[in-house]
UniProtKB/TrEMBL annotation:
The name this protein goes by in its record: DUF371 domain-containing protein
Cited Pfam families: DUF371
InterPro entries: DUF371, Mth639-like_dom_sf
Superkingdom in the source lineage: Archaea
Taxonomic source organism: Candidatus Heimdallarchaeum endolithica
Amino acid sequence: MSFETSFYCYGHKNVLCKHLSTLEFTTDDFLTLKGDCILGIRSTMSLISLPEKLKKIIRTDTTKIIVKIEVDNLIEEVVGYGSSKLELSDKHAIIIRKSSYTCSRTLIIGANKAAIDISRNIVHKMKNPNSKMKVTIQVFPEDNKRSIHA
């Protein structure tokens, strides 16, 4: 059984998506070239606004999480895991991490993709401020194939 929620983000001319270990969506309405992990701005959701039921499942070490990114007819999926160490409390950012680092801005750890791994076709579309991206977070509780992290 899975649970999910969706939100929307918009493009910006400074979208680079070159970061090697993180991918971010932000509620901010601007983006500098230093934000090389950001794929979308003006997000309609932040971690603090995630449904409580979803947060509870995400805060389990064995939860598998799939983030589906859709722009026009292009789709990308990022797979990672939850953790009992996740705060899920930031008001501006949702960050996916390949590493196991956690902070108030982290949604997923142990992800299979970061910004640099996102399709360049999607990145190109998100350089257009008029582009709208749908992001769906699917959580799968108790994925027994995953060992509990340290």
